[in-house]
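Regression test case RT-17, inverse folding.

Input:
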Protein backbone atom coordinates (compact mmCIF):
# COMPACT_ATOMS: atom_id res chain seq x y z
CA UNK A 1 0.00 0.00 0.00
CA UNK A 2 2.79 2.43 0.91
CA UNK A 3 4.58 1.59 -2.35
CA UNK A 4 1.44 2.41 -4.36
CA UNK A 5 1.15 5.83 -2.71
CA UNK A 6 4.82 6.57 -3.42
CA UNK A 7 4.45 5.54 -7.08
CA UNK A 8 1.32 7.70 -7.46
CA UNK A 9 3.15 10.76 -6.07
CA UNK A 10 5.99 10.22 -8.55
CA UNK A 11 3.53 10.05 -11.46
CA UNK A 12 1.72 13.20 -10.27
CA UNK A 13 5.02 15.11 -10.18
CA UNK A 14 5.87 14.21 -13.79
CA UNK A 15 4.40 16.98 -15.92
CA UNK A 16 5.39 18.08 -19.36
CA UNK A 17 7.33 21.33 -19.47
CA UNK A 18 7.34 21.57 -23.26
CA UNK A 19 4.61 22.91 -25.56
CA UNK A 20 2.11 20.14 -26.33
CA UNK A 21 0.00 20.86 -29.39
CA UNK A 22 -3.57 19.63 -29.06
CA UNK A 23 -5.28 21.02 -32.17
CA UNK A 24 -4.46 23.39 -35.03
CA UNK A 25 -5.27 24.04 -38.65
CA UNK A 26 -2.46 26.56 -39.20
CA UNK A 27 0.29 26.11 -41.75
CA UNK A 28 3.50 24.65 -40.34
CA UNK A 29 5.37 27.97 -40.47
CA UNK A 30 2.55 29.89 -38.83
CA UNK A 31 2.09 27.18 -36.20
CA UNK A 32 5.79 27.24 -35.28
CA UNK A 33 5.86 31.03 -34.94
CA UNK A 34 2.62 31.07 -32.93
CA UNK A 35 3.87 28.39 -30.54
CA UNK A 36 7.07 30.37 -30.01
CA UNK A 37 5.03 33.49 -29.25
CA UNK A 38 2.87 31.48 -26.80
CA UNK A 39 5.88 30.13 -24.93
CA UNK A 40 7.52 33.57 -24.79
CA UNK A 41 4.37 35.21 -23.40
CA UNK A 42 3.82 32.48 -20.80
CA UNK A 43 7.43 32.56 -19.63
CA UNK A 44 7.53 36.38 -19.46
CA UNK A 45 4.24 36.64 -17.52
CA UNK A 46 4.24 33.33 -15.67
CA UNK A 47 2.07 34.61 -12.82
CA UNK A 48 -0.25 36.92 -14.80
CA UNK A 49 -2.27 35.12 -17.48
CA UNK A 50 -4.13 38.29 -18.47
CA UNK A 51 -0.89 40.09 -19.39
CA UNK A 52 0.39 36.99 -21.21
CA UNK A 53 -2.85 36.83 -23.22
CA UNK A 54 -2.64 40.52 -24.06
CA UNK A 55 0.98 40.21 -25.19
CA UNK A 56 0.14 37.17 -27.31
CA UNK A 57 -2.89 38.85 -28.91
CA UNK A 58 -0.96 42.01 -29.76
CA UNK A 59 1.94 40.00 -31.19
CA UNK A 60 -0.43 37.95 -33.37
CA UNK A 61 -2.24 41.09 -34.59
CA UNK A 62 1.06 42.69 -35.54
CA UNK A 63 2.69 39.61 -37.09
CA UNK A 64 -0.25 38.07 -38.98
CA UNK A 65 -2.71 40.97 -39.30
CA UNK A 66 -6.40 40.87 -38.59
CA UNK A 67 -8.11 40.47 -35.25
CA UNK A 68 -6.78 37.66 -33.07
CA UNK A 69 -7.94 36.42 -29.66
CA UNK A 70 -5.92 34.61 -27.02
CA UNK A 71 -7.04 32.86 -23.85
CA UNK A 72 -4.54 31.48 -21.35
CA UNK A 73 -5.61 29.69 -18.18
CA UNK A 74 -5.71 26.49 -16.22
CA UNK A 75 -9.31 25.45 -16.78
CA UNK A 76 -11.92 26.74 -19.20
CA UNK A 77 -14.40 25.59 -21.82
CA UNK A 78 -14.87 27.06 -25.26
CA UNK A 79 -17.02 27.17 -28.33
CA UNK A 80 -15.70 29.58 -30.95
CA UNK A 81 -16.03 30.55 -34.58
CA UNK A 82 -12.76 31.19 -36.39
CA UNK A 83 -11.19 31.72 -39.82
CA UNK A 84 -9.72 28.68 -41.55
CA UNK A 85 -6.00 28.40 -40.84
CA UNK A 86 -6.55 30.50 -37.71
CA UNK A 87 -6.76 28.17 -34.69
CA UNK A 88 -4.18 26.84 -32.23
CA UNK A 89 -4.98 24.95 -29.01
CA UNK A 90 -2.07 23.76 -26.88
CA UNK A 91 -0.84 22.93 -23.39
CA UNK A 92 2.30 24.32 -21.77
CA UNK A 93 4.04 23.87 -18.44
CA UNK A 94 1.87 21.05 -17.15
CA UNK A 95 -1.62 22.45 -16.66
CA UNK A 96 -1.58 25.72 -18.63
CA UNK A 97 -3.96 25.84 -21.61
CA UNK A 98 -3.48 28.27 -24.50
CA UNK A 99 -6.13 28.96 -27.13
CA UNK A 100 -5.43 31.35 -30.02
CA UNK A 101 -7.86 32.03 -32.88
CA UNK A 102 -8.54 34.58 -35.59
CA UNK A 103 -12.00 36.18 -35.50
CA UNK A 104 -14.49 35.40 -38.23
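Golden output:
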Amino acid sequence: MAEEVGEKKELDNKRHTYPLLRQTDMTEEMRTETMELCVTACEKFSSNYEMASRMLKESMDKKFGGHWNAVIGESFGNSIGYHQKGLLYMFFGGNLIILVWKNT
